[in-house]
Every structure is written in structure tokens, then in C-alpha cells.
Amino acid sequence: MGLTGLEIFKQLPKTNCKDCGQPTCLAFAMALAGGKVSLDQCPHVSDAAKEALDSASAPPIALVKIGTGENAIELGNETVLFRHDKRFEHKTGIAVSVCDTMSADEIAAKVDQINKLVFDRVGQTHKVNLVAVGNCSNDAGKFVEAVKAADAKSVFPLVLMSEDPAAIEKALEITAAKKPLVCGANAANLEAMTNLVKKFDVPMVVKGADLNELAALVEKVVGMGHKQIILDSGAREVNKVLADQTQLRRQALKKFRPFGYPAIAVADNKDTFQAVVDAGVYIAKYAAIVVIDSADPADVLPLITLRLNVYTDPQKPIAVESKIYEIGNVDENSPVYITTNFSLTYFCVAGDVESSRVPGYILPVDTDGISVMTGWAAGKFTPEKITELLQTSGIADKVKHRKAIIPGGVAVLSGKLQELSSWEVLVGPRESAGIASFLKQRWL
């Protein structure tokens, strides 16, 4: 794990100059240990101390970047074994494979299908991340043609899956500028593959027959001057992959440097259902990249949802933007609902407003992403904040009435809210499922 604040403090100049923005060197050390500041904010740290701290405070799992532009993906920088200890930093990249035994038209059609694997979940856009081109034919010419076909269509970075250095070299001549991931270094071709990825400056998967061989191979690659590495333990049976992924993470956190890189897992079960289940295991247990074959949204969406749950920061609830949301064909007579910006709360309310078949406006108050009752108890869902939103959101220009519906659980807010806002406050149902019946009794 990283250095403690006191260990960092010993390396600092101890002048308490405040040039870093912290009141003391000890305060800066504690902030650095917590990841809240960076070492370069201290202008007086010595070169020797900087070298020592940079090495010792580096994340136990290195950062690896694949691709360019908006669809580039970053992997690694992980610091914990369990998500609740802090958080996982970079979500698992999901790669969908195509094979060079497919025709160019078939590859183009599947890649086009992969490009469309984009989903909206709790107000956020989630998608797959990579297209893996497999050298299934073991023919270098066919592999290069498949890479050309995929590269021409894919909006995502490529994974070049071949153990043939000649095939990889020709493929990199086509795609290197887009920074693909080369997946094919092993004990037999290690030197040739490493020289290629160094030449084209791209990341590479190193595959061992077991963890011992993998560690030795990684040390050789690093010794040759290449550090953009993804680990592959060589296992394909789900129980063995699970054991290897867990061991890789544990040893990396103990600063065993050969395992200090992200890892890849291949869910290649011929039974599509079982392959999806296997991929779910790998997402839950530390795989930085999971390769699957299916581009069916019904297979991919469960993995996207699982990944969202695993890689959500447990210290930071998912929230929607605090603004006016229009549900249905609203007009000047539509009801106005007040809630919080906790995404689950908002989407429950939005769904029940839509189900009521009465178009309405929803105003989620910014409560730092916490629910109605929690926000009220924490002093973040208050008459003052609701009044401010009513006055600044522009809702008064959209409706001719001045009626706001608040959740029934916080009826206690109604009196002061009405006094501050000059809006008539209606106390709605305690649960959003009651919105339809509430409207029939109090609005329609």
C-alpha cells in the first residue's frame, strides 16, 4: 500500500512555508497520503526525496492507456482489494471479439453492431470499450485484412489478438496511430513482440503458462524498457481465472512489482449464457479487461449494469443534475414535483410520473446525491434550498400556477416553504408509487 502521512513527512523539507497551500508540512504530507494533493505542489522538495516518494507512493497497479480520443480507455491505478475500503479507480473495459475467419462484410456488420452497444443507465451513458480482432485462422494475411475491416468501422480501440509477430507488425502498420492493445506476447515470442510494441509505442498483453512464468516474463519485458503491460495468467477455466485474478491483485497490493499491472480475462465459453456469467465473475474480481464474443445487447447490458454497480464510488452517490426535467408533453398547467437529485429517487419519481399519464415537471434539489429523508435529516433538503431552486430554475416561466408538490415524508417542510417561496405547497404521497392516485384526488 502507499506511504503513510508520517513516512511522507520525513522526506519533506519541514519548513512549513505554506507555498503548497497547506498550513504545515505535516498537513501536506497527510493530504498527499490521502491522494488529495500531488507532490509537485511542494516547490522545495529535494530531487532525492522526490525520487523516493514518487517510487514509494506510486499506485501498486500501474496506469495503462489504450486508444486515442474520446473513446480511449485508462486501466489500472487500483489501490485496494475491496471496493468499500476506498473505491476502484478505473472500470473494467469490455471488449467484444470478431474473428478473421469471418468475411469483411461480416466483420463490418458485427463491428457496426458493437458500435451501437451504448446504454443509458441512471442518467449516465455506458458502453463497451474495445473491439478484439482474433487471429483465429492463424493466417497473417487474413488477420491483417480483418484488422483493416474492423479498423475502418470501429469507433472503439482495437485489441490485436495474435501470437504471430509478423502478423502483429503488419497490423500495427495500419493501426498503431490509434494506440491499439497488442495481445500476444508469450515465452516463445517475447523478445520480438516487445521490440514491436516499443517501436510503435503501444501497450501489450504478456501471457504466462502460470503465475510464476508470468512474473518472469514481465520482468524481462520491463528490463527491455517497456512498461505499458497488461497481464494474462493463461488460465481460461473460470475457477482458475478467479484464483489467478485474486492472487494478482493481492500480490500487487503488497508491491510485488511484476504483478503491478492491470489484467485481462477471456470469457470464451461456447455457451453464450455461461460466457456472460463468467464475464460477470471477472468484472467482479479485478479483471481490467474482459473479452466476450456476443454483441447482443441482451448479453452485454447485464455486464454493463454489473460494472456500474461494482465501480460506483461508494463514497459518492450517483446523482442527476439539479435542473428542470420535463416528463411527457408538459404545458403551463402541468404539476411541479420537488425531490432530491439522488439518481434512484429521481428515476423512481420520473417513472411514476410517466405512469400516471399526466405530464409534469420534476425539480430535483441538489442534496449531494442523497435521498429525501436522508437529505432532510442532513440539512440538505430544506425550505431554503427548495425556494432557491423554485426562484432560479425558471420553472415560474413555464407554469401559470404556483403549486409545488413535495414528498409526503417531509410534510414538516410545507409551512416554512410556503412562507419563503410564496408558492402553494401540496404534500404529496410518501412514496412516488402513489402519485397517480394523488393527482386524481388533489390535482385533476
Give me the oligomer status.
single chain
How much helix is in the residues?
A: 25-40%
The CATH superfamily title of the largest domain: Dihydropteroate synthase-like
Assigned CATH architecture of the largest domain: Alpha-Beta Barrel
Strand order of the largest sheet: 10-9-8-7-6-3-12-11
How is the main sheet built? Answer: 8 strands, parallel
Mean pLDDT: 93
Write down the domain tally.
Answer: 3
C-alpha end-to-end distance: 61 Å
Structural class: alpha/beta
Query: Which fold name corresponds to the CATH topology of the largest domain?
Result: TIM Barrel
Describe the global form: globular
How many individual helices?
16
Question: Would you report the number of β strands?
Answer: 17
Describe it for me?
With 444 residues, the protein is α/β, with parallel strands linked by helices. The protein folds into three domains: 5-57, 3-methyladenine DNA Glycosylase II, Chain A, domain 3, CATH 1.10.15; 64-310, Dihydropteroate synthase-like (TIM Barrel, Alpha-Beta Barrel), CATH 3.20.20; 325-442, 3-Layer(aba) Sandwich (Rossmann fold). It contains 16 helices and 17 strands. Strands 10-9-8-7-6-3-12-11 form an eight-stranded parallel beta sheet. A three-stranded mixed beta sheet has the order 13-15-14, sandwiched between helices. The chain has a two-stranded antiparallel sheet with strand order 1-2. β1 (64-66) and β2 (73-75) form a beta hairpin. α5 runs parallel beside α6, α10 runs parallel beside α11 (297-310) and α14 runs parallel beside α15 (414-421). The longest helix is centred in the middle third of the chain and has 16 residues, at 238-253. It is globular, with a radius of gyration of 27 Å.
